[in-house]
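Hi all, a correction to my earlier message: I attached the wrong file for UbiD family decarboxylase. Here's the right sequence:
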Amino acid sequence: MLLPNDLRSALALLRQAGDEITPVERSISPEVEMIEDFLDAYRQPGGSWFADEQPLRLYRRPTRGEFPVLMGMFGNRRRCRLFLDPFGRYSADISNAQLLLQAASRPIAPRLLGGEERNFHNVRKPAEILALLPILRYLQDDPGPTVTLGLIYAHDNRTGAANCSYHRITFKEDSAVVAIDSRGHLQHMLSTHLARGELLPISVNIGLDPAIYLASTLTRPCLSYGSDELGVAGALRGNAVEIAPCHANTGRYIAHAEIVIEGMLGAEKEPETAEVAGFSLPEYLGYRSPCGMATTLQVQAVSHRAGAIYQTLSGPGVEQSILLGLGQECSLLARLKTEGLERLFCRVAALPSGGGHLLTVLQVVKRACSDDLRVIDAAKRLLGEVPSLKNVLLVDEDVDPYSERDVLWAMSTRARLERDIHVSALLPGTSLDPSQLPLYGGSDANGLVNKCVVDCTVPFSSRRRFQRAF
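and the right structure:
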């Protein structure tokens, strides 16, 4: 098997493993038509466009932009496993999240190169970028064409702190905006620069070795502020990720990126849409949210490799849920290890049907009757420590936590919901889930909601009666 070091070698690895990449040769518009075609490619009766595996499709002739469009790279767990362990060195008992955490414990710092030879364009206006890049619009009344797999790389040249994270970047008629989590590491770095009277130079990297996208799902407590996610990607590959100085600012970009947008972030914010009551592109849970204020991106330049590929997501769907879910699985495993409970909880599965956040399964291994309560108490503590959690289901070691059907079987035969649902105190929720808004009921004006643990495990004293027949 090949060891990937960029997007193109990762595609070659998939071909070598027998994964089909479907080329689409007809002309197709990135203005809504392309996303509709992608969803139609795997929708089927009895299926779920939101949680079903997604195909790999390469759109060779977009009607706007100069590059083909790739979708579905992270469309199932099998592909992600191949990207994390291309030589199959680890047993299936080691989960994707555990592989990523192992890499995080032994990072290899990125290596800074000189200026790379790339096709370079000085651009300022969104219209110039949209003429060059086939950025997708997802619904007709979206705020504008939106980059969904643009990995922002930011580096503090004074302190050495670095951050890799992806954010939706929307190109409006006269400007570009970035949706930044106010609690995230990128906002921390931006605030640090603004406090020093400086703008933050960034690069937006599109089309990368999948290891970098997967490493960038990590957050607290797996990585502290300033830790460079590229070091985790380097550990996965056994080689340092190469970076290079930006052309238009003092930032850095990932040298093998298919496409790079260079720009500056400052204090300026603006509405994400010009519409008074406008909505965002579809969010990761399959709904739309009212647009708010977003940080203005001062675009300076675009560069690309010869024959570049534009990589993107479908918005809500299993691809985005797998990425978000991997980060949540790592956070939970790290917290369980900190509490000394890693032997009691052997696997964590953040299921795509919950967008990778709202439906999480913990597989437990009980060794005594006292563990019946220990696992419930530990799961309730996790609800208070990880704000993105909502419903946590506990299952035994003979239940596949990644199979929604097996989990539902356990709920049906090993739980009595009138006694096995354990409701938390009021905890912070997310406004992206409409059921956690005050309008739904059961939440207060501060966004606090009750969450729950569902115990679908067998009481330790009754385990013989519940042995599976097959």
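Sorry for the mix-up. The longest strand covers residues 259-271.
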